[in-house]
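Chain A, query sequence.
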Amino acid sequence: MFDLRPDDEQQLIIDTVRQFASEQLRPRAREVDESGKLPPDLLDQAHELGLVANALPAALGGGGERSALTSVLVAEELAWGDLALAIAILSPSLTALPLLDSGTDAQRGAHLPALVGTSFTPGALALLEPRFDADPLRPRTRALRDGDGWVLEGRKCLVPWIEGLQLVLVSADVDGRAELLALQPGAPGLGVEPARYMGLRGLPLVELSLDGVRVAADARLGGDAGCELADVVARGQVGAAALACGAARAAFELSRDYARERETFGAPIATRQSIAFMIADMATEIDGLRLLVWEAAWRLDRGLDARRQAALAFSQARRVGLQVADGAVQVYGGHGYVREYLPELLLRNLSGLGSFGAMTLL
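Chain A, predicted structure.
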């Protein structure tokens, strides 16, 4: 049985991140979406909160307080402010946490200190491939042995590529097993093509082409033992579901408040049965999704197998996120289609989040 009440420290973190999201992220969400550029000052402010660094060992400069449950609470609050900015802020975890879980001591020592330094340093994880039957656990990208190193061949898509990136972890088939290899952004043979999508326009996303990219033997995460990619994917699914929960909550709250204020025929539209039922359904679905996310995170914190719970949370997140965001557009009526209002932005962003799956780690 898991306790649904945040402890005092978690509540303090929630309040701090909620204030940051309200004062810094939400007011700049539209600007970021329109410009397609991340504000460096905002990323540095978020870095100062230590949202990723707190999960890393104290010996490497972190806070040594890793908790998947705390992380999903943080992710929800950030995504309530803006989904694209939330993913960018949490991007260091894309490299930091797989290194922490599966990296060798040498790999951790070489790459983790930069992520807890004085300035924001992003991370990137390349799991998805541009094909209709893409499966992160069965990559077609291959890592072929070549003397004392590896040669990478393949394609990746939907990869966050934020300025200042120093390391990207690429999934590949290593002797019939899906694993991760560390790659420097400027490696010879690595092609980087910017991509623009309907949603998450403020987050720089790219497609990677790996044509004979050669990396050293120690680029294999975990050394000769390798890593368990299924655990990385499960944590990513829980993180993505938490983000969807936050963005959906934003759409619900906007709908609720608008319905109370907007009047037709002398009464708020919230008094119309069809609107009231739609908003009630939004709240119910979001609460159900949150419980799935919390259960999966609780199991992760106790070292239990959470793959089933992670898959269920992510599957529910894809449905609930779209349902709630679409409902918000309907509640706003004609205004829901206007860029001056947030529902259309939330609908586009939540449409894109379902494609990522293992975007954010815990």
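The first helix runs from residue 8 to 25. The radius of gyration is 20 Å.
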